Amino acid sequence: RWAYVNGRFVRHGDAAVHIEDRGYQLADGVYEVWAVFGGKLADADGHFERLERSLSELRIVQPMGRKALELVLREAIRRNRVRDGLVYLQVTRGVARRDHAFPDPQPVPAVVITAKSVDRKASEAKAAKGVGVITLPENRWGRCDIKTVGLLPNALAKQAAKERGCAEAWFVDPEGLVTEGASSNAWIVDAEGVLRTRDTSANILRGVTRKSVITLLGEQNIRFEERAFTPDEAKGAREAFITGAGSLVLPVVSVDGEKIGSGTPGPVATRLRALYIEAAS
Ligand code: PDD
């Protein structure tokens, strides 16, 4: 396997960054994940746009133009012989003697790219069974719209989910509404048959997959609202699912151990998964 580190491809096992990289010390950096279908980046532009926004919100210099970055991502896919999989890109503010405030002058941002294959057969088998989610109190910071590498609450939430045999954790805000998952956006088909996901004025990530799925909905005859829901509404829903570059569209069959519907993937989620994969391939 090959990784891209600060301007060149190196063997994955030898790839390393400096101990005073601000990503390592302060989580001062951002990332993106693209799904890869047939060797091609899915939703390429949506992820580039969000990357540029995350960087500018943190006042990290854009390490290179979009065209150049796309070339490197494609080279990472090629070198690692990825047909179906994931590409990870991380940009941190760079290396400087430890100090919380920004270094002056700004260091060169550090760029790391990895690519790995995913066993789509296994993912389809998982999707056909559906996954469970748990709910946890929202404990992240107030800028979840920025895709930063500061993921400790997300990692702890995922671990709690795993320990209960679940694949995802949904955060619930003080108003009792689901914000999003630890690494995905949360959706239901409510008791009235309306597809719902939280609006992006809330403190959540503007999911690129979420946006593509909304575009698909416009072409289908599915009632949809950007409106938050409670864990109880999810438990009483007809269907639930999550979206993200890693999960694509993944049916949810239980929330906090309570079955959704019959406890099997619903028709809407199943159809949207197929449509999304078809559109992205
Ligand atoms: N996670 N919400 C959170 C908190 C996320 O971390 C992600 C993605 C999403 C879905 O966004 P998108 O559809 O743009 O992938 C929502 C990536 C896949 C990850 O952390 O691995």
Task: List the SSEs and their pairings.
Blueprint: E1 2-5, E2 8-11, H1 22-26, E3 29-37, E4 40-41, H2 44-57, H3 66-79, E5 85-92, E6 110-117, H4 120-129, E7 131-137, H5 152-163, E8 168-172, E9 178-181, E10 185-189, E11 195-197, H6 208-219, E12 224-226, H7 231-235, E13 239-244, E14 248-255, E15 258-259, H8 267-280
Parallel strand pairs: 7-8, 7-14, 11-12
Antiparallel strand pairs: 1-2, 1-6, 3-4, 3-5, 5-6, 8-9, 10-11, 10-13, 13-14, 14-15
N-(5'-phosphopyridoxyl)-D-alanine is lined by residues 33, 180, 183-185, 205, 207-210, 243-246.
Report on the structure:
It is a single chain. The chain is an alpha+beta fold. It folds into two domains: 2-118, Aminotransferase class 4, branched-chain amino acid transferase, N-terminal domain (D-amino Acid Aminotransferase, Chain A, domain 1); 123-280, Alpha-Beta Barrel (D-amino Acid Aminotransferase, Chain A, domain 2). The chain contains eight helices and 15 strands. It has helices spanning 22-26, 44-57, 66-79, 120-129, 152-163, 208-219, 231-235, 267-280, and strands at 2-5, 8-11, 29-37, 40-41, 85-92, 110-117, 131-137, 168-172, 178-181, 185-189, 195-197, 224-226, 239-244, 248-255, 258-259. Strands 7, 8, 9, 10, 11, 12, 13, 14 and 15 form a nine-stranded mixed beta sheet that branches. Strands 2-1-6-5-3-4 form a six-stranded antiparallel beta sheet. The longest helix has 14 residues, at 44-57. The radius of gyration is 19 Å and the shape is globular. The structure holds N-(5'-phosphopyridoxyl)-D-alanine (PDD). N-(5'-phosphopyridoxyl)-D-alanine binds next to helix 6 and strand 13. The site of N-(5'-phosphopyridoxyl)-D-alanine has 14 residues, from helix 6 and strand 13. InterPro entries: Aminotrans_IV, Aminotransferase-like, BCAT-like_C, BCAT-like_N, Class-IV_PLP-Dep_Aminotrnsfr. It holds the Pfam family Aminotran_4. Belongs to the class-IV pyridoxal-phosphate-dependent aminotransferase family.
